[in-house]
Amino acid sequence: MGDDSEWMKLPVDQKCEHKLWKARLSGYEEALKIFQKIKDEKSPEWSKFLGLIKKLVTDSNAVVQLKGLEAALVYVENAHVAGKTTGEVVSGVVSKVFNQPKAKAKELGIEICLMYIEIEKGEAVQEELLKGLDNKNPKIVVACIETLRKALSEFGSKIILLKPIIKVLPKLFESREKAVRDEAKLIAVEIYRWIRDALRPPLQNINSVQLKELEEEWVKLPTGAPKPSRFLRSQQELEAKLEQQQSAGGDAEGGGDDGDEVPQIDAYELLEAVEILSKLPKDFYDKIEAKKWQERKEALEAVEVLVKNPKLEAGDYADLVKALKKVVGKDTNVMLVALAAKCLTGLAVGLRKKFGQYAGHVVPTILEKFKEKKPQVVQALQEAIDAIFLTTTLQNISEDVLAVMDNKNPTIKQQTSLFIARSFRHCTASTLPKSLLKPFCAALLKHINDSAPEVRDAAFEALGTALKVVGEKAVNPFLADVDKLKLDKIKECSEKVELVHGKKAGLAADKKESKPVPGRTATSGAAGDKDTKDISAPKPGPLKKAPTTKAGGPPKKGKPAAPGSTGSAGTKNKKGPETKEIVEPELSIEVCEEKASAVLPATCIQLLDSSNWKERLACMEEFQKAVELMDRTEMPCQALVRMLAKKPGWKETNFQVMQMKLHIVALIAQKGNFSKTSAQIVLDGLVDKIGDVKCGNNAKEAMTAIAEACMLPWTAEQVMSMAFSQKNPKNQSETLNWLSNAIKEFGFSGLNVKAFISNVKTALAATNPAVRTSAITLLGVMYLYVGPSLRMFFEDEKPALLSQIDAEFEKMQGQSPPAPTRGISKHSISGTDEGEDGDEPDEVGTDVVDLLPRTEISDKITSELVSKISDKNWKIRKEGLDEVAGIINEAKFIQPNIGELPTALKGRLNDSNKILVQQTLNILQQLAVAMGPNIKQHVKNLGIPIITVLGDSKNNVRAAALATVNAWAEQTGMKEWLEGEDLSEELKKENPFLRQELLGWLAEKLPTLRSTPTDLILCVPHLYSCLEDRNGDVRKKAQDALPFFMMHLGYEKMAKATGKLKPTSKDQVLAMLEKAKANMPAKPAASAKASSKPMGGSAPAKFQPSSAPVEDSVSSTVEPKPDPKKAKALGVSSKAKSAQGKKVPSKTSLKEDEDKSGPIFIVVPNGKEQRMKDEKGLKVLKWNFTTPRDEYIEQLKTQMSSCVAKWLQDEMFHSDFQHHNKALAVMVDHLESEKEGVIGCLDLILKWLTLRFFDTNTSVLMKALEYLKLLFTLLSEEEYHLTENEASSFIPYLILKVGEPKDVIRKDVRAILNRMCLVYPASKMFPFIMEGTKSKNSKQRAECLEELGCLVESYGMNVCQPTPGKALKEIAIHIGDRDNAVRNAALNTIVTVYNVHGDQVFKLIGTLSEKDMSMLEERIKRSAKRPSAAPVKQVEEKPPRMQSINSNANMLRKGPAEDMSSKLNQARSMSGHPEAAQIVRREFQLDLDEIENDNGTVRCEMPELVQHKLDDIFEPVLIPEPKIRAVSPHFDDMHSNTASTINFIISQVASGDINTSIQALTQIDEVLRQEDKAEAMSGHIDQFLIATFMQLRLIYNTHMADEKLEKDEIIKLYSCIIGNMISLFQIESLAREASTGVLKDLMHGLITLMLDSRIEDLEEGQQVIRSVNLLVVKVLEKSDQTNILSALLVLLQDSLLATASSPKFSELVMKCLWRMVRLLPDTINSINLDRILLDIHIFMKVFPKEKLKQCKSEFPIRTLKTLLHTLCKLKGPKILDHLTMIDNKNESELEAHLCRMMKHSMDQTGSKSDKETEKGASRIDEKSSKAKVNDFLAEIFKKIGSKENTKEGLAELYEYKKKYSDADIEPFLKNSSQFFQSYVERGLRVIEMEREGKGRIPASTGISPQTEVSCMPAPTSTVSSIGNTNGEEVGPSVYLERLKILRQRCGLDNTKQDERPPLTSLLSKPAVPPVASSTDMLHSKLSQLRESREQHQHSDLDSNQTHSSGSVTTSSSSTANIDDLKKRLERIKSSRK
């Protein structure tokens, strides 16, 4: 019992996990009670039990498990967090519950699964259950199937995905277990209930008995649509609604409601796609061409079997289709034709939409084959063409079908008509728009009059079907001329037709058709993709007209199919009664006189031909009065004009009479019902008088009146032909002028461009200049309406004339055509449909292109040409492409039939040769222009492959592809591209380039569309995967595109599509969707509506329709007219103009003037607060954009309308910038007087000003900034504080302007920012400015950094947001910027912080690269030395010219530019130019710190280098001519000029462009991998390593920090670098060439890389770090051991000195040293110990023992000891002979240390050492050496005597002589021959010369001996000159010590001055080997590099590496220089004391 009581006390969760089952049972019961008590589903209590739920269901004790299951069920039902446990719990249920024998357990398990589905976790549950079906235990399988069945039965097929279940069904039917088979049967029945026959195909292969049983069960099922009985949580309201309906007994309604809830599942979707291309017989393509028909038949039968698969995998079927097409078209055996047709049918059925791209090729062939009479062939062809039709659209194949309609063969005609009829059945009113119907009806109408009855019947059937689909109203206009009998026949056929979409579709269309014709006409040539849109918002106008339409004969356009025919164009807009007048018969002169005398006074008629002009004049006056009084219906127009034309008629000599006459003609035309017959009587006379000086104007007025009566198109044509049939040039030019004017007044609709153009061409060729000028003016006006395609007609004119035409067009560019003012009012009274009107300008757009004569080029596309394009040899392929380009160029405009060209070009789009890909893209661009809109039919087979090219890795290829896609889309519109799955397939490819380009393109195009095909939804899943792509650019583009997808698909659809995502992804995507919902732009509205809204107020009704036609044409087309850009502009501006009511009559404008007196800002109480609320609640768009879109401007306009004076608003939103200037001037004037108003509208004013920042006009910008300065001054006086909303919608845009190129603007912006801090906290400003530093514009970055410095200086560190550390790290990144000004600004800002904040800065900025750090230290040091005020004064005194020199000089050198004073406010006073403060002369003093820390690194300043080059700046710069590179960058021609090639390639390794660098590296890798070529690298190793670690630095500092860069790219670059290095360090001979300095920097780079945490975070980062490890080991093993040891010692010393370097870094350096120590036993003999010991000596000098002991870790001291110990052990006492390089050994800690070690080891070995040891170490070397001298020398001479070791012996002898100058070698030489003695002497001399020469060589390359000697470069050192690392004061002793080191390095002795040894001996000492930083070596290589660089015209290296090494004196080691040096050192010492 005791046991029990113990667990009873435990808390619930512990009980539940107890090992005793009773304890668990009790725990589960308690848990169940707790679960039942918690009421709130979101209570935190639930989370405590998350981990338990799996245990509850998987308990090992059956009894306890039951209780656990109950508890789990309650938990899942009520806990909000339960969803997180889905996967583990359901898998637990499947494995541990479903196998239980207790039925109760299984039931609870099933319930839990269903409950998870209810809480929206259906997919996860289904996944686990499907996994359960693979379990070996049949019980589990049965339970899983049962659960799935119940879930399907309750939740329905919308929630439970059927495809995966159906996939496993056949397998379940084959199970050995009967229980499983039975359960499978039940679920099959359940599935059938939901999807009916779609289930049959997947189950067709199961056992026939089972299938029969299933059939029996299926028959029993009720036929009604099933409904779900259980709903997801989110749908439970729906459930409640359903229950109410049922309880009310109204279930029927519910049924209707939900009938469409169940998704219609297409059997095709459930099938697995089969790949058949690989299964084609190998010899298929040969057999299909075989001569024997049997072989061909075999090949076809093989295909037929394969295509029987109901679903085929997408692939490239082009060749197969081509082969089948050939059989259908050319094979003589009809049986094979039928077989090939069957194969095509199979392909089309199996591929569905994916077959669409081949449809265009096959359709014409099949249609022409209908000439075959055999029924089985005809039937096969019918089936094929019907199947193919379903894979494409009628629009795409319409051209081909129409072409066949004119065939002479009646069977072809009949079958084509029947095919059209069948096709129409599949269409709906929206997919069969008027533009498509028109050509089809025209062709069919010809057929109904055919002689063959079968052709007539087929045509009737087709027309009847069309009538049924789109309704009578749409078809009737085309049937105007059909007689009643035939019309009845068509109607009779229409009644018999059964549509595919069910009768419903037809009716609906018919119903709709009573309204929306106008909407439809807008879609001139598009495939009606917008119709559905238009239907939803029918315009009310036409409703009333419908009845008259039918009565009035041909009411709509009388335009027949032939473009441009104008006879009937006249009928265009005449409606109702006017239609009859057009055909007025010509009356005889007698009848006319009779009619005229009835209405005119008798005298008038008599005096008409009086000889006295006064009488004639009086007669005219009476005539005029009579006409004025006459009523329209009574006026006999023809009779009156006949009277006027009566003798003298138009030959009237008196101008007054003539003027009257012409005026009367105009009156008659205006007042009467003037017909074309009357017009023809007078027009000739009018044209004759148009050039008359006095009567010309009257003639023009009369013509205009006639044009208004008889329509301009007709009148214009008559007038033009008359003018050009006579000789008078004045008449001709005036006619043209009249026409230009008339077009502007009447609009362009209906004009026959072609007829005009021939006349204009005649005019352009005229000799009279006035005629030519008028013609050009007319062209300009036409250009406004027609667009750039107009120029095509005049390409062959003379260049001079063409340039005049171009100049005229240029003038018109950007202008929009004025709204027509005439020719409308009458017709609008008669009830014109706006839509009809809207169609016409549109038609012009397309017609112009149609008018061009198109050449047929298919005959030129020969099979030879096609095979050329596909040739193996690229040169031949190129020839082929050139030919194609030539053909297209020559033809200019071509017909759509281009034969085999598309397939050939498609192949070239993935050519391995990128140049050919680009050429192909250019050809495709040409093709689009040449073919015009007809290119549509090639979108699928050629357009989509162009999109694939967007994934190319080369930037220029992608750009070309994008340009091509745009050129195509311009011609085709977007619908073709978006239809089908092609686009979504492209987006699916995981190519970052493809994705970002494609999404960018869609984001640009989608917003312009009014509607899109439904297939757009297919792209959404891929769009979501792009949102989470690894590549940042792809993610960004996807986010940008999101709102535009949503704009077309709606939020609901998009949100629903997230259902398939993983839960984490889903949440992220939904969050993005919410965000996008806020930014979602409105759809581009049908602008007729849009424009009439704003106009309502301002313009009288008369003008409203006037804007409709133009605009409708614009916005309602996606079909681009020749220039969609222009169309867009035209739309916008016409909107803008009509909105301002520009044509407002003068009365209102007077009123406006009076209005201007009132206040300009109206104070609306709480207006601003309300606006902010709206923005917060997302009711309006958030003010956030990269460039302002129209919707933002419209929104601002509406917001302003309530609080800004109307007239001011008109000025503010005018399209002309001068009006903006006026508005700003007014605002400045009213600023003081209307403070309250300004503050009340401040948010709107600031938003409006942000729009002005995007204008290109500088004057507006300057005015705006001026206003802002005043505004912020006012606000600070008023003590106003900006709200967050105002700030965030203004500051970011203001900051954009800080990067303007103009100084004045930048200065103003800075001034404004300065003032803003008074009204908005600086700490909040800071993040905005910080954001500005991320700009691509370097000026903006620099200015923002300067501004940040000013903020810190003025307001202290607290402004740095979010924390000073983060802010400074961000700023410090810019020290490594490419741009000098940015680097300077960043440095200055940090110096400012340093001045405010002291040494803390270094902690805050974190780790910087060596280079950046030393730049910063340098700058800080300099700022400390300089009195801060001086520079300003000097600058002010400087003459302006000097200033300009300085700013230029700044481009040339780094030096003085960095010399910025630390006081940044001065910078502000100098318009923010850091360059200005540059006068500094400190560089000439030898600065200890500088020498010590900066030995010869690139950063040393050397102003004198630049000073004497200043004059060169004013000389013209000679740009070297680009030379063709002779040396290929590859090494195939190794020996031509190897060195310069290698130099060039190595220079590219350090390039800032990743691709360049990678290419260079791969080329070097090629060389290194080939033994025979690797030698070429010899001598270039240091240079190559330098370039490499510069690249490593660049990656570390720049690329890794660059957000926009693909991290994959960086990894790729890293792997190239590391791979290269590994290759290099495997070749020992090359590896040994690496010098110490270079190795030091290389190791620094590699260790930094190993420690880079950013790499570890990348996917392949670990791999990179492992490779680096391997590389480091290789470097340690293979390089020259002396060099690497030396390098590591120096590196360790630097890293310990540098405070900025991390302890981890030093630790890794030490690990490398340990590794070296381990290698020592093998390498000790190859090591130059003297050098190593010198390095150790220097190390111990810098870090005496005490100092080392202070280090945080004991590693450094241990490392050093281990190294020395190992050396001692290996060398023994000999080691003391190697201290030769250390000058005063006695002072060296090292020697003492070594002696101690030696003594210690001696003691240990037990051998008592000589007495000398005790006497002191100083004598050891003397004694020991003397003792051994003889043996030693004997050894040496032995070596010299032996053949092999002569050289080595001589070297040793030389060393020995050097060391012991007093040693006597005479005895050894005495015994030898004279020859041997002279040989030895000569050898020693040679060695001496070599050694000394070596000492001198570096001096000649620009590096002084000091640098050579300096063994302690410390670029990373941050020891400031004032304080030690520990911060305490440092006494002079330290300086003395440092001076000693320096002196010693310079070869100066440290003994007292007078004891100095003679200089000669100093010089004869062996030169100390160089350990200078590798950057010095760079310079020696640089001169070579530069030469090779100039050859190659490349300049990759960063500017600061191209400077010659600064401050290093280039002296050779002459005595004079050393004296000079001493003097300087003296000076330093005295100044320091």
Describe the protein's architecture and organization.
This protein is mainly α. Helix content is 66%, strand content 0%. It contains 110 helices and no strands. Helix 38 (676-689) runs antiparallel to helix 39 (696-710) and helix 42 packs antiparallel against helix 43. The longest helix is centred in the N-terminal third of the chain and has 30 residues, at 103-132. The protein starts with a helix and ends with a helix. About 18% of the residues have low confidence.
Write the layout of secondary structure elements.
Blueprint: H1 2-8, H2 12-16, H3 21-37, H4 45-48, H5 53-57, H6 62-78, H7 86-97, H8 103-132, H9 138-155, H10 162-173, H11 178-195, H12 208-220, H13 236-247, H14 251-259, H15 267-270, H16 284-287, H17 293-307, H18 318-330, H19 334-351, H20 356-369, H21 375-389, H22 394-405, H23 410-426, H24 434-447, H25 453-470, H26 472-475, H27 484-496, H28 502-513, H29 517-521, H30 531-536, H31 541-551, H32 578-581, H33 589-599, H34 602-607, H35 613-629, H36 637-645, H37 655-671, H38 676-689, H39 696-710, H40 712-725, H41 729-746, H42 753-764, H43 769-786, H44 799-812, H45 825-829, H46 834-851, H47 863-869, H48 874-891, H49 901-908, H50 914-931, H51 939-949, H52 955-972, H53 975-978, H54 982-988, H55 992-1005, H56 1020-1027, H57 1032-1049, H58 1051-1056, H59 1063-1079, H60 1087-1098, H61 1104-1115, H62 1124-1140, H63 1146-1155, H64 1167-1176, H65 1190-1201, H66 1206-1212, H67 1217-1231, H68 1235-1240, H69 1242-1253, H70 1258-1277, H71 1284-1288, H72 1291-1296, H73 1303-1316, H74 1322-1332, H75 1338-1355, H76 1364-1373, H77 1380-1397, H78 1400-1405, H79 1410-1425, H80 1430-1437, ...
